[in-house]
Amino acid sequence: MIVSNEPGYYLPGHFGIRIENLLEVVERSDLKEFGGRKFLGFRKLTLIPIQKKMIVKELLSPDEVDWINRYHARVWDEVAGLVKSEGAKAWLRESTSPL
């Protein structure tokens, strides 16, 4: 099954921000079973950099900064080899560089 994760913040009459990702529901073999049934989790399908100029790093916890940096590293690792244009690859490198 594929679901969308769309967290957002909206200030009525002013602006809205939303980050969307498609997720595949997968069995999690790294988690213990419960009542003989395995837990499910998610695998990200859409790998798009999160716009860093919208992030105020000082408001994030170290774990949140780490999560974004790991996500961006994965985006680079899985997408960069598919990009042919050097200009687009430079944009991707900058967009996925650590916070």
Short description:
By secondary structure, the chain is an alpha+beta fold. Helix content is 28%, strand content 24%. The chain has helices at 62-79, 86-95, and strands at residues 2-5, 8-11, 15-18, 21-27, 40-44.
Task: Provide a descriptive summary of the structure in words.
This protein is α+β, with helices and mostly antiparallel strands and 99 residues long. Helix content is 28%, strand content 24%. It contains two helices and five strands, in the order βββββαα. It has a three-stranded antiparallel sheet with strand order 1-4-5, with no helix packed on it. The chain has a two-stranded antiparallel ribbon with strand order 2-3. The longest helix has 18 residues, at 62-79. 2% of the residues are buried. The mean pLDDT is 92.
